[in-house]
Amino acid sequence: MMRGLRRRVPVLGVSLSLLVVLVACGGGGGQPPPPVSVVVTIASPTGAQTLQVNQTLAITASVSGTSNTAVTWKVNGVAGGNTTFGTISGSGLSVTYTAPASVPSPATFNITVTSQADTSKSASLQVMIAPPVSVSITSPTGAQSLQVNQTLAITASVTGTTNTALTWKVNGVTNGNSTFGTITGGTSTSVTYTAPASVPSPATFAVTATSQADNTKTVSLSVTITAAPAPVVVTITNPSSSTVSVQVSQTLAITVSVTGTTNTGLTWTVNAVTNGNSTVGTITGTYPNITFHAPGAIPPGNPLTVMATSQADNTKSASLTVTLTPAAGQPNPVVAGGNNVHTTGVNFSLSSMTTTLGLVALGTCTGTPASPGTCTAGATGFQVKQGATLTVWLLGQGLTDGIGASLAPGLAVSVSQGSTSDVTVSSVTPQCNSTGNPGTCPLSPALTNITFQIQVGASATLGQRNIIVTNTAGELQAYVGGIQIIAGP
Q1: Domains in the chain: how many in total?
Q2: How many CB atoms lie within 10 A of CB 58?
Q3: Higher pLDDT, 429 or 10
Q4: pTM to 2 decimal places
Q5: Strand, helix or coil at 371?
Q6: Mean pLDDT throughout 467-481?
Q7: Run of H or E residues at 22
Q8: Alpha carbon of 369 to those of 136, 305, 358, 407, 456: distances in Å?
Q9: Which of 398 and 447 is assigned the larger pLDDT?
Q10: To the nearest whole percent, how much of the chain has pLDDT over 70?
Q11: Where does a domain end: 226, 243, 273?
């Protein structure tokens, strides 16, 4: 037995040695593996994103460094998001983010994706929520009615985007056409619509503006096209002539018509004075029969303009030129000068422009106006031969300063010429003064005296002429037919 035991011991020693070697070989065959390095990225989209409310965004992430690609999505720190900041739908690395129905506070926040293999590894996408695009027409408001060829300025407003470009359409046609009218102004928010030249069918349609940032946002303006009305016409049917004469203090019947409008209202003026006044005459009556009442004296600015202007369209009017003439009757004869020769006066006073007795005598003098010599009073008219020169004097009111020292302001004397210029007047001079010299002076201190020369051309037209006296108050035919041109020499 001792022998057998001794045999087995070496065998055991060999076996232990082999075991140690195997263990040593198994433990020292290589280096330990490196630690896992997880990387999380958002592959799409890249960069900060701006979304309008209720919009969606597809997001894709990637995870490397681990076979465990499970991730957790959060919106503003809330797993899966919520109704305030939007929600995440789907799972894994590809999900869809849906923006909230209204702009949250804050409007800018992060969507974060975190590795479940290593929660210290994450990636974020910045998102800003913007209001929805809105398009409105700020001017005009409400449906519009335009006549053919008229224009309409239209102003729109675009909110919720920095892109304010608009696509304008008229009855569905971009920028319109000749049938339904056109838009000028391009894609701006302020454009001009021009109605067509004729009424289209249908006559009512829409002008629309569509956002180019969001073509689901549009606004419309209803437009109706109507035919142009007949033009307003004002016509004075009576008197038939546009130029008439009326004696002072008399009346003139006027008949007027207004067409092209149901508004027959008229504004009447006499020398630009509405309804006139006591100086230029007055207007009375109602459409269509009007009466012009001439003043009692010829006013400054004679002849007068009587005008009727449409109240429906103040660019439309009709007018009459009314020339005021002296009254038909003449006053009683008066004594002209100291020789007791009677002469017929004329119904005017140059100073007051009334129909009281005024200019009362016409006579001739020897010499010149500056030194007339002997004056013959009381002529009701006199003859002058062609080629002759004659000194004439007039007696009346308002011809001088009242004592004969100077002429009345603005005084001028002329002789009516008709269509020729063959009789001229010169050297108008006051002749009566407080001493009654020179010449024949009036019996009444209210009357004064002037002299002047009449020069008749050698081929002057034969016939009667009127003496016309003018001062700052106006013009008078002071002595009608007082001169008769006869054949010379």
Answers
A1: 4
A2: 11
A3: 429
A4: 0.42
A5: coil
A6: 66
A7: helix 2-27
A8: 86, 38, 22, 13, 16
A9: 398
A10: 74
A11: 226
Cβ-based burial of 447 (10 A; exposed 0-12, middle 13-18, buried ≥19): buried
Q: Which residue has the tokens 């009036």?
A: 442
**Where is 10: in which H helix or E strand?**
helix 2-27
Average pLDDT estimate for 211-227? 95
Q: What is the mean pLDDT of residues 443-460?
A: 76
DSSP string, 190-212: EEEEE--SS--SSSEEEEEEEES
- Provide the CA 138 distance to its chain's centre, in angstroms: 21
- How many Cβ atoms from other residues are within 10 Å of residue 460's Cβ? 23
Per the domain annotation, does 19 fall within a domain?
Answer: no
Burial class (CB in 10 A: 0-12, 13-18, 19+), 56: exposed
The phi-psi region of residue 142 (left if phi > 0; otherwise alpha if psi is between -120 and 50; otherwise beta) is left
From residue 10, alpha-carbon distances to 2, 4, 7, 17, 19 in Å are: 14, 12, 7, 11, 15
pLDDT average, residue stretch 116-122: 95
Which residues touch 290 (CB under 8 Å, ≥6 apart)?
Answer: 253, 254, 255, 256, 268, 283, 284, 308
Start-end of H helices in 204-336: none
Confidence of residue 355 (pLDDT cuts 50, 70, 90): very low
User: Do residue 372 and residue 312 come from a single domain?
Assistant: no
Q: Which of 243, 236, 269, 238 is nearest to 321 (CA)?
A: 243
The answer to whether residues 341 and 435 belong to one domain is yes
Q: Which domain holds residue 207?
A: 134-226
Between 296 and 170, the higher pLDDT residue: 170
For 139-186, give the DSSP string: ES-S-EEEETT-EEEEEEEEESSS---EEEEETTEETEETTTEEEEST
**CATH number of the domain where residue 216 is located:** 2.60.40.10
| Digit-coded pLDDT (tens) for 169-199 | 999 999 999 999 999 999 999 999 999 999 9
**What's the Cα-to-Cα distance from 236 to each of 242, 311, 432, rounded to whole Å?**
8, 16, 50
pLDDT reported for residue 416: 75
- Domain membership of residue 99 (yes or no) is yes
| Co-location of 82 and 149 in the same domain | no
pLDDT attached to residue 28: 47
CB 321 within 8 A of CB 292: no
In angstroms, the CA 85 to CA 77 distance is: 10
Q: What are the pLDDT digits (tens) for 141-180?
A: 999 999 999 999 999 999 988 899 999 999 999 999 999 9
Q: In this structure, are 274 and 402 located in the same domain?
A: no
- Mean pLDDT score, 212-239: 94
End-to-end C-alpha distance for the chain, whole angstroms: 205
pLDDT grade, residue 477 (50/70/90)?
Answer: low
Mark which of 226, 245, 277 sits at the end of a domain.
226
Sheet holding 448-456, edge to edge: 375-379, 361-365, 389-396, 448-456, 423-430
